[in-house]
Amino acid sequence: MRKISIGFISPYDAMVPMIEELKQGQTDLEISAEVGNLEKGVSIAKEMEKQGTDIIISRGGTAKLIRDAVLLPVIDVHMSGYDLMRSIMLANDHSEEKKALVGFSNITIGAASIVSLLEIDMEVVTLTDASEVETILTQLKEAGYTRILGDVVTVNAAARHGLNGLLIQSGREAILQSFEEARRLFKTLKKNQQLLRVLGQLVTEREQDFMIAAESGIVLFENWLSFERLPIASEELESLKKQVLEEGSSVLRVINDAEFPFSVQVNSWQDRNELLFSFFFKRISASTLELYGGKAEEINQLPQIVTESKAMKNIKQLIEEPLLAAEPVILVGKAGTGKQTIARYIHAYHEKKGYFVSLSIEELKKSFGELHSLNTSTLFLIVNKVSAALNVYEIKELLTIMAAQKVQVILSTEEMPSELAEALELHEAIRIILPDLNDRQEDIEFLVRQFLTEFHQSLGTQPIKVRDDAMEELKQIEWNGHLNELKAYIKKLALAEKDYVIEKSALQKTPVTSHVPRKEKGFIISEKDTLKTIERKIIELILQEEGYNQTKAAKRLGINRATLWRKLKS
Q1: pLDDT at residue 250 above 70?
Q2: How many CA atoms lie within 13 A of 25 on its CB side?
Q3: For residue 389, what are the contacts with CB-CB under 8 A and spacing of at least 6?
Q4: pTM of this prediction exceeds 0.70
């Protein structure tokens, strides 16, 4: 098998010795390295093309010029995070100098985040055009800057201005990565001809619903297996084609409002003078089903819960007990304390295979027909308030049927009246009282990190860190809306912040505006409460304050642990 011929054109001298060293272990590559920046690099590349080189490797502006000048594939040696970190740390050692990093956005975006995260005193300047280098360097020199980091062009220009230049060099890992990319690219090129030969056969044998159409709308080919015909309207097709052209990449859209949910993936390509589109359709299993007043979900991933505080650690330990896999549970806590997340955690942790169904207790009867026919494992009932119209006896009968089907019932409520629990025959259900966010100070920092990660993944927000003084201020805020209010506020900060770090000043610019009044700790005694009910409320309050440690709670109540357990079960 012949070796892959690679021409490595380095824009600076210091890269060549490293290339020569690293190529010794590349037995399948024949690498020729030369130095040539910009136009000189283009001249060398053209000569290599004549000599039968398979692939060219270069860097930055030189790679771009070569790509426009030759027909060979050109790989750009990217500046890795390691490269930036090394150069920035080297420059930082010259603490007596004012330092600036000048480059295009592919360098400065990463550099700005490193400088900010490490709190390094260095100006980061982004170029939009190479012609700006001279002007920017003049301005930096007038401002007292003496050391400039950048690529070859920037460093050469810095020398002409009498400034100390420091070249951001590509390290071993970046060069080795370019070798691997060359292997992958060559393998692809080698297969292209073979793929073209078998394409016709694959089109006819592929067991998938798809359609190929021209930009004009003429259908060139279609193959329907799971569908009788094209499952979307012509208006939807036009919308998909427009989106592909606007984004310049493949588009995947999920259609949930059809009789059978399905996905459609759309690509476009230029066939000589005509633009073509391919549409691949695939039926998908419904992981979420809408019910009357609620929904049924398949939960395949364990929800994240933060358990740095003592109360949450004890709750996590409790819900992971094997007993919690089947026993009825009552989750008591204010709105926004995370009751549904705990219920979902119970469902996922104990590896329930059926649906997790959540709905209001008032809607249980209306949804029962659908619910009864589903493969339901967990029924999460939300008790917002108990009205006189609620037929408790009827609900108890429905819950009895669900229990016979091995469905775990989890009730969610802000306050569970003992008489309701008795009427539903849930008086022996395990009660878990979720603490307010203001009682979970140890959890706030980790919750903020979790929310930032979530928004970065789902919304593409920039911030990845909150400065320490800003985090301390977040901990001092009265979160009357609990987790919901904290999450909404962090979302607002993340969307507004265009840098990688949220500073304390961002909190001052974006104050918390809570619509939930702060409630005092304690409990409310109703005129209808019996002595037994009041006693229960006192026990639950002490348990919450003691982080659900029954030994400590019993000691405060002046009773032994066995008596406390008996009172909780009664």
Answers
A1: yes
A2: 8
A3: none
A4: no
